[in-house]
Amino acid sequence: MPKFIHVAAAVICNENGDILIARRPATVDQGGLWEFPGGKLAPYETARQALARELNEEIGIQVTSASPLIAINHQYPEYNVLLDVWRVHSFDGEAYGREGQAVRWVKPEDLKKYSFPEANHSILKAISIPDYYVITGAAENEEEWLLKLTRALNAGAELVQMRVPSLDKNEFLSRAKKALALTSESGAKLILNSAADLLGQIDADGIHLSSERLSHYSQRPIPRDKLLSCACHNLAQLEQAIALQADLITLSPVQATDSHPGVEPMGWQRFKELIEQVPVPVYALGGMGREDIRKAKGLGGQGVAGIGAFWQQVSRSGK
Ligand SMILES: Nc1nc2c([nH]c(=O)n2[C@H]2C[C@H](O)[C@@H](COP(=O)(O)OP(=O)(O)OP(=O)(O)O)O2)c(=O)[nH]1
Ligand SMILES: [Mg+2]
């Protein structure tokens, strides 16, 4: 059996929003690559305890607040690793390379300039997307819909899924082009809820596959530099999304929701159990409001997704 190691690692943010990375010494495994500080759990430790100890030993800081970001199971040729990644929100002390390693604070958008171990791909994706994911409402006429999108962007939306199932392919494409102009201008990302081949006709940031579409693909249908978002409701669909190398997942319904009356919600406990082994950022969906972001993140989710609280409400308050 391959060796298994359990590692706690930290995405540490300072007050400017910069993130700390450290360079692994040339002589160790994955040497010369950049990493998020951290290390192996001692047999008696929880991941949270190991995080605190490793960050003190490696970069001389004392963690005062941290929450789980993502857990990644990865197979290297020589061993399997479970990377338990935390976001560190606050700490005491000044970070320095206590073991002589180079450390650097970098802007999130500059992380792509550095080489990381293979397992870090999902961590980098998780850092690049926000904690709420706006799904657009469906039916209104185009002018009204674009106005609502503008309001959502003005209210701070950074990741938007265009979901308008009533439009045919040409109408969808034409509206998507207008939406992309708006999201690009405000620095937000636009994901299209459509078949993957639409990306050949419009340079949006990614594609969202409904759980029905998800089952039709046998491999990742879009390039690695685009975002693949997948809708899941159960373990089998989560496994399928992982197999397709999804970059983000919506898992629903967590709570009861008006948009799907009569569907039994899974509840927060089941949400937590399902995502524990999922190496991809997962948004809780179904009956969510902004006040649920903390809850979802505390359970290891990326945040929350929704139509109601993030689309209609924005427009109502703007009227
Ligand atoms: N800390 C950290 N480890 C990572 C990252 N990505 C990644 O694949 N790993 C892997 C590489 C290593 O095999 C393992 C971390 O082990 P480590 O060598 O840092 O462990 P440690 O700090 O306890 O070191 P040591 O006491 O055993 O020398 O996890 C990352 O971003 N941060
Ligand atoms: Mg280490």
Description:
Belongs to the Nudix hydrolase family. It catalyses: 8-oxo-dGTP + H2O = 8-oxo-dGMP + diphosphate + H(+); 8-oxo-GTP + H2O = 8-oxo-GMP + diphosphate + H(+). 8-oxo-dGTP binds at residues 24, 35-38, 120. Its EC number is 3.6.1.55. It is a single chain. By secondary structure, the protein is α/β, with parallel strands linked by helices. It has 2 domains: 3-121, Nucleoside Triphosphate Pyrophosphohydrolase (Alpha-Beta Complex), CATH 3.90.79; 132-318, Aldolase class I (TIM Barrel). It is built from 9 helices and 15 strands. The strands form 3 sheets. The chain has an 8-stranded parallel barrel with strand order 8-9-10-11-12-13-14-15. A 4-stranded mixed beta sheet has the order 4-1-6-5, sandwiched between helices. The protein has a 3-stranded antiparallel beta sheet with strand order 3-2-7, with no helix packed on it. Strand 11 (206-209), helix 5 and strand 12 form a beta-alpha-beta unit. Helix 3 (142-154) packs parallel to helix 4 and helix 3 crosses helix 9. The chain is globular. The protein binds 8-OXO-2'-deoxyguanosine-5'-triphosphate and magnesium ion (MG). Magnesium ion is lined by residues 38-39, 58. The site of 8-OXO-2'-deoxyguanosine-5'-triphosphate has 16 residues, from strand 1, strand 4 and strand 6.
